[in-house]
Design goal:
- The structure is a homodimer.
- The first copy, chain A, is α/β, with parallel strands linked by helices.
- Chain A has a single domain, classed as Alpha/beta knot, CATH 3.40.1280.
- Chain A is 41% helix and 17% strand.
- Chain A has 8 helices and 8 strands; from the N terminus they run E-E-E-H-E-H-H-H-E-H-E-H-E-H-E-H.
- Chain A has a 6-stranded parallel β-sheet, sandwiched between helices.
- In chain A, helix 1 (34-46) packs across helix 4, helix 1 runs parallel beside helix 8 (177-189) and helix 6 (128-136) packs across helix 8 (177-189).
- The interface between A and B is large, with 43 and 43 residues.
């Protein structure tokens, strides 16, 4: 299949497990969810993301991620479903967001702009159309998503941009992070928007 | 929060576990995935879907779904996260697609048009823009999604419409059903498209 339109974007993703907040707004470390790795890696591969970073400082959680990746990239999973391993190849594991930024700089010689997503209305200073224009101009961006009840303020405050929340067609505003990433990638990089 | 634009759509979702195909194209019954219920119900609630049907003929799988629903709607989960129970309220379990259609007819006095999604290019006869126009005119629609390696031909052949596949920004075309549902609902009912 030859695509008529294809954008060579400079986009990276990070999924944060610390610092995030629980439902009471307290700072916590969340556990890694297996399907976050699969679903977000598959969406990232579909939309041409360069790298997908799993951020957790916990040794056992990093080991878990590496075990899952080994199964699908080198173990039985790679034979059973090679398309899955193509997507999971995008994943890398880091201790902190700072480590992610250092790795991207090392890898691409660029310091990406950091973009956080927040379901809270009012904080945002960038919509998908504006970000889409920046991506088309070649801006290097790291899109940062939170697990649990969302990113800690300490990450939101340091970001270069805060992306508008996803509003659907009702007042209900509680998508899974897997759905939110998929929808935002489609809005930013879907064939009708590039 | 008061929404400026809100479409009172007549849309239903069904997630099929039989008949679907495995990677060799053989007809199988797939197992229910817990996160399919959560993610798709949350996306359905966000975009104003009327009902989300889980289709499986297997007694133990139906019991599993009902156990999960009980936990979140009546058990500890309902206290822990009431927003989750609001979404899971949309779920109903049926043996077959025919049962889904009968239930919708009973519930709404309408026979919805059936719309299947297929990742295979060439079969489709409807794009999201065209379907969006039909929804705006009030057409009652049942969007049918397959688990495993997709819907069996016996379902695809009987559908009223086949929706275009989701193309991202690369040639990779292997989204999870959770991502695919989220993206299609956003394309059909997202605030910028209504």
């Amino acid at each position: 299949m030859i695509l008529k339109k294809q954008l060579n974007s400079n986009l990276y993703l990070a999924l944060i497990h610390y610092p995030v907040v629980n439902k009471n707004g307290e700072k916590i470390v969340s556990a890694v969810t297996n399907l976050d790795l699969h679903d977000i890696a598959r969406a990232a591969k579909t939309y041409g993301i360069k790298k997908f970073y799993i951020v957790t400082p916990l040794k056992d959680q990093k080991e878990l991620v590496n075990k899952i990746l080994f199964h699908w990239k080198n173990g039985y999973g790679a034979k059973y479903n090679p398309k899955r391993s193509e997507a999971l190849e995008l994943i890398d594991v880091c201790d902190t967001l700072e480590d992610v930024l250092s790795k991207i700089k090392e890898f691409s010689k660029e310091s990406p702009k950091t973009i956080v997503t927040s379901a809270k209305k009012g904080l945002n200073n960038l919509d998908c159309k504006q970000l889409n224009n920046k991506i088309k101009l070649g801006m290097s961006c790291l899109l940062i998503f939170g697990t649990a009840w969302g990113l800690s303020n300490s990450i939101i405050e340091k970001a270069d941009f805060i992306l508008e929340p996803i509003l659907g067609n009702t007042e209900y505003n509680h998508l899974s992070v897997r759905s939110a990433v998929s929808i935002i990638l489609d809005r930013l990089l879907g064939r009708n928007n590039i």
